[in-house]
Amino acid sequence: MDWKKELNRWKEEENIDGSLKEQLELLDEAELEDAFYKELEFGTGGMRGKLGPGTNRMNVYTVRKAAKGLAEYVKNKKGDSIVIAYDSRYLSETFAVETARVAGAEGVKAYVFSSLRPTPELSFAVRHLGADAGVVITASHNPPEYNGFKVYNEDGGQLPPAEAEKMITLVQKVENELEVDTEEAGTLEEKGLLAWVDTDVDEAYLEAVQGIRLSDDIDKDMSIIFTPLHGTAHPLVTDSLKRAGFTNVSLVEAQAEPDPEFSTVASPNPEETQAFTLAMEKGQKTGAELLIATDPDADRVGLAVPGEDGEYRVLNGNQTGALMLDYILSQNEELPDNKIMIKTIVTSEMGRAIASKYGARTLDTLTGFKFIGEKIREFEASGEATFAFGYEESYGYLVSSFVRDKDAVQASLMGAEMAAHWKKKGYTLLEALEELYKEHGYYIEGMDSLKLEGRAGTEKIARIVDSFRETELKKAGGLEVLATEDYQSSERIFADGTKETIHLPKSNVVKFILEEDSWFCLRPSGTEPKLKCYYGVKSRDREESEELLEALRAEVSEKWHAVN
After folding, report:
1. Catalytic site residue from 140, 348, 412, 539
2. Using the 8-state DSSP alphabet, how is residue 51 labeled?
3. Which H or E run includes 553?
4. 267 counts as catalytic
5. I need a surface site. Which of 80, 110, 177, 241 has the fewest CB within 10 A?
6. Each residue of 56-71: pLDDT tens digit?
């Protein structure tokens, strides 16, 4: 794209939104180029970007263009309705209504939640209302200056690659995002093309959440503190815990109300310990035994528990996933012999060991919960396997498949039940985790990221991944390389030169399989301008695993920083 030509097209548009026009005048040349040099793309989390003017920004015009493409996508599938939800971010409600106005102008009915709702409820609502697609306006746990447009298919799952490509093609056919037709909301209501969704869907969803419970033989008086981190989870998580009989739940009041600035945290991300600061302070005063934090759109959840020294420890995503998997498989006697656990390629191998103990298969997918949702749908249709649990290292878990995306409401309830189960047996979650390590080995993981913004950053990220792809590594961190998995060429290349096909969608990802159940993987983020490198090691001793991880991270980091 000629960014200056695109900039002039916006400047010459007489009816452009006044606030966006004012913002254009405040940007320097580098900022203008970044705002106009490309169009926002759909990655693992849909369309997501910074708010502001430009083709590479989230604004009413880029949202309208995406909505137009979605409406055409629905009509091409002979559908006639969508569901729209939104979170607490800046302009989320505006973008939700604009999506409905575009859809209605195309003859597609929109069911719009009348106030904030979490992402998993949107996934549920698509299926519950029999709609043909869904949208949630959210940027998950990104900083306040971001927002996004996540699209869901009729199954309630995020669009997998083949479907996403069809929609992207339709979006790209919209020649001018500044001239997309819309219809007034009141007019659409009169025509029956806009309906507001409220408590009926909430109640149906909450009833389904209660269905995941596995045991009442637990200590329901366990002291719990919950924080929604200024997002959408407050009513649903607290209600779910109350209905399950948890009598000792308190809220971090300062973080209970929606706030687009997320003013009490540096980042509203439960993956980061700082997000638990206020919960920990309250926990120290009250002696809370479990802290629960959800991200703004309530698809991710983090758990923290006190250690032997009384200080709280935040469990990482792999640890929480391993504990949940072990608890579910040990307690759910109704699961059939063909049960399957689904995880991503950058999630700990500990889950595979736990699943094997209980006779469950493990299936790996690419990063992105849409791939897990896609497999659930396939297995339901074929009967080949029964979904038992799905998770990814980035704090996303799915207990039951009435939702087809990660679900922090389900996971919060299951996390509380699991902790209460272990409390009754005399263990904290940390002590239960230690028992799993002793049984299966000390699996320890890590992740490094390199933030590189703009066109130059995107190009450098590609060069770094290619440099690893093209280097024939024999060892990494002192461990032998057993195989290289190139998901762009769909090849697994073993150390002896033999090859086999990887039966997953193509993606610019390279993973190195090392001895002793260890590995590392390079992947450009689908939602942020970052290169991520994931690591996993295993030994029979914690200290040895920590040393292995440190050596591996140091060597790989040195290699990627050496790329120009």
Report:
1. 140
2. B
3. helix 542-561
4. no
5. 80
6. 999 999 999 999 999 9
